Amino acid sequence: MKKSTLNNQFILGITMVSAMGGLLFGYDWVVIGGAKPFYERFFDIANSPNMQGWVMSSALIGCLFGAAVSGYLADHFGRKNPLIVAAFLFTASALGTGIVNQITPFIFFRLLGGLGIGIASGISPMYIAEIAPAEKRGKLV
Q1: Could you give all domains of the chain from N- to C-terminal order, each with its CATH number?
Q2: pTM of the model
């Protein structure tokens, strides 16, 4: 039996890209937290605590649904394809929240970003575990 060689740089690269879901989750919260005073004035919701809470938490609602469907998506479409969809959702959310000038589409794009975060958070560890060699799996995941 011949011994296979592993491309450690390739595996590490895939792991780093796959783990970006967690990084983007934190990044999203920092960015939206810093932008809060500006979008509150822009959308004229500075005196509406209910609306402020809804805008801020809308990404979490998306995360909830993304995490809930991530197992189903991974089982039916594999790990890679849903991660690509999640990356598209991240991109659409970032562009959409930056372009819109009304609160409803802003919330829609926040929900979309949350959906991507939930999907990536659920599937990324599975994908990393699948591509990692057995002896490095625990460390990479």
Answers
A1: 21-140 (1.20.1250.20)
A2: 0.81
